[in-house]
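Please study the protein below:
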Amino acid sequence: MNKARFESFSDGVFAFAITLLALGFVLPETRIASNGDLRHALLALWPNLIAYVLSFSVIGIMWQNHHALFRFVRAVDRRTVFWNLLLLASTVLIPFATTTLGSYPTFAAAAFLYGAVLSACATFYNLMLLHLVRSRSFEPEVTQSTVDETVRGYRVGWVIYVCAMLIALLLPLVSFGLYLVVVLYFLVPRGADADVSLTARRW
């Protein structure tokens, strides 16, 4: 597949998913009779706002990592497309999981669902990366150390997501904190995400 078309389609799905997050803000269906009632209803949406900020950061980082990774990929094959489609399929579930988490922030089921969706995204991302490594799909200029650091970085994120998902069954608020940890973790550039000067080196 043409890599530019592959990336354009992926960018479109990420943009669509991040736009859908705004639909998580819903006022009560009952008619609001006064300004005070409206103010109270708006303030009651604060859990949705926190969930929105978290998920906006998550999808934004996923898009950034995806772009950073594929700038070093020279060719896209069918298996790469397959794993990428599964990644995107998981990504578009994030708005639903976000709305659920914002509406029921202390419920274990909501925190677990959120973790399950993010764990699925991380799983398919790591499987796609593993395929790219095994099929030697990176540009010859990409160093082995850059590839190794990229693999380690995304694997750590996957481990934290899975742990947070399991912890959500007992301690939903703790799992929420761990989801924030992943966002902070990926704010530090590493591997392919870092603006590095590549040294010519064939594998």
Notes: Residues 118 and 161 are 7 Å apart (CA to CA).
